[in-house]
Design goal:
mainly alpha; single chain; 19 helices
Length: about 425
């Protein structure tokens, strides 16, 4: 009788649980934290670096292949407009959900004056660094973000995952150029990108064999390096509010969109996407998770490669539903702690600012905090209040990255349906 292999997502879950348990056990010893930092954390860093290593090559080959396969500029423009519009709609949904939940729960009323003073003192220095970074962004002209999209040197842009939009811009130009060339001229180059795409996905398969061990190391180091539990208790109401909002968005809103507009069983979708969600949870990076997301969406959910290779790289850069939802909740929470009642106009300002900020948020851990400074200043709330949420930001960042990745995959399914394509049959999951 053939023995059933344990599904990848179960292996990753086991890695997460064992990592948490080992982390808790080791911090009971004086030497435990340093042991984790020296001997366990590096393996988690290696895993994340391996994922980041192939993120840009994968974007280049898959996006060029996806655009070149369209063979029609009109078809490309329609897909591009639909993708961008759908991403904006889901972002607005996410921020709205966050604002509704935070106004119902009112987590800012649960924190005492003493706890607020303690946290402002503990994390004030980190907030000053964020404010300085935000001021350097604000000092640029209003069209600077548009200028930043166009690289002056593609090799320089491709040298950093933080320049993802620049790489995408260049890659789209290459893809459009291939579409406009006669087929006999473009065919040899297209074949190279076809083979490159298959190669990158195969490398993803190789990397995912060590994913359970990578997330084990990441979770152990997270527990070992976490702040004191007292602060987590004080921020429990805020954290719970964010988690409620993320749950509603990830499972209810996306589920409804998949069921009624995508024609997909939401439970089946979540099951097949689970390994990508777990990697997103462990790495806190949409960009690092992108290779896994593309592999799950194409090979297991059945989205056409023309769609996934176009929609997902762009989504990993501009679609940050979980981050946007968190920014809405965090802004209102900080205002509540400071005793500021935000008007409807101010909350609509949060909706607009967080939507625009999400487009420019880098797909890397902690980038949402920088954008939160901009959101707070737009409604007249002191950015120093970010110190109130820094202690719990990392675990929440892990959770909102899951929502970011799930949103990208959901939109890929919707665009697949909008463009008249059917999901391809795939192998069943264990």
């Amino acid at each position: 009788m053939k023995q059933r292999k344990l599904a990848l997502h179960w292996k990753i879950i086991i890695g997460i649980v064992l990592g948490v348990l080992l982390g808790i056990a080791l911090i009971q010893f004086a030497w435990g934290k340093q042991f984790v930092v020296d001997w366990i954390k590096p393996f988690g860093t290696i895993f994340v670096n391996m994922l980041k290593l192939i993120a840009i090559p994968l974007i280049i080959v898959s996006l060029v292949k996806g655009i070149a396969d369209l063979r029609d500029i009109n078809q490309l423009s329609k897909m591009g407009l639909r993708t961008f519009f759908t991403y904006i709609v889901t972002t607005v949904f996410a921020i709205s959900v966050g604002l509704i939940v935070v106004n119902v729960v009112k987590p800012g009323t649960f924190i005492s004056d003493q706890t607020r003073t303690e946290m402002l003192g503990s994390f004030g220095g980190d907030v000053e660094k964020l404010s300085e970074a935000q001021q350097s962004v604000s000092a640029s002209g209003p069209l600077q973000p548009l200028v930043d999209v166009v690289p002056e040197n593609i090799f320089g842009a491709a040298s950093s995952n933080g320049n993802m939009l620049q790489v995408i811009f260049f890659t789209i130009l290459v893809g459009i150029g291939l579409v406009m060339l006669p087929e006999e001229k473009s065919a040899p180059i297209t074949k190279i990108f076809d083979s490159g795409n298959e190669l990158m996905l195969k490398i993803v398969d190789i990397i995912m064999t060590i994913a359970p061990y990578g997330v084990f190391a990441l979770m152990t180091s997270l527990i070992a390096e976490s702040p004191s539990s007292d602060i987590f208790v004080a921020l429990g109401a805020y954290g719970l509010t964010v988690l409620i909002g993320l749950f509603i968005m990830t499972y209810l809103v996306y589920g409804a969109l998949l069921k009624f507009y995508g024609g997909v069983n939401p439970i089946d979708f979540q099951k097949k996407l689970a390994p990508a969600q777990l990697v997103a949870f462990s790495t806190s990076s949409s960009a690092a998770t992108l290779p896994v997301t593309m592999e799950r969406v194409e090979e297991h959910i059945g989205v056409d490669k023309e769609v996934s290779s176009f929609v997902l790289p762009i989504g990993a850069t501009i679609n940050m539903d979980g981050t946007s939802l968190y920014q809405g909740i965090a802004a209102v929470f900080i205002a509540q702690v400071f005793g500021q009642d935000l008007s409807l106009t101010q909350q609509l300002t949060i909706l607009l600012t967080a939507t625009l900020a999400s487009i420019g948020t880098a797909a890397v851990p902690g980038a949402g905090l920088l954008m939160l400074v901009i959101v707070l200043e737009s409604i007249g709330v002191n950015p120093a209040g970010i110190a109130l949420i820094l202690a719990i930001d990392r675990p929440l960042d892990m959770c909102r990255t899951v929502t970011n990745v799930t949103g990208d995959a959901t939109v890929a399914v919707l665009i697949n349906k909008m463009t008249g394509r059917q999901l391809k049959p795939t192998a069943t999951e264990d």
